[in-house]
Predict the 3D structure of the following.
Amino acid sequence: MKKVILVRHAKSISHGYDQDYDRTLTERGEEDALTISRELQKLKIHPDLIIASPAVRTTQTAKIFAETLDYPFTSILFKKKLYSGTTAENFLSTLQELEEEKETVIVFGHNPTVYYYMHHLIRDFNRDVPTCATVGIDFDVNSWGQLREQGGEMAFMFIPDMFR
């Protein structure tokens, strides 16, 4: 069984488009990231790998999750293509190439790309993906190379509004 957890970054401050990469989390965004990461902790999620966009707001969100889940921040793999919007097909290929000993991977990104990844990995996925939305996807496979388009099953979906 392989598990992918997709997370849209938490709520960030508004800026002009030219400053998008450097946007930081709001206080509410920090609180939401802590709340959702604690829900993963309750599920006894222990990531073998965390991959994140290097944009500031995504890095901050990943750091909060990593601290809550006892994952070393220095081990987070930052991929610029998660910021610039790698295609869903290329994202699937990236997952298919993961090291086999990795069982649970958490990926932090941006919308609309995170939505496209969810839609590409889960059959009939058509939900809103607000900030800090977190979706667990289970794949009934033994190898990452066996992942297929829409071959995953949604194990859970957490959004901050569920806990307010």
Observations:
- The longest strand covers residues 2-8.
- Residues 57 and 118 are 20 Å apart (CA to CA).
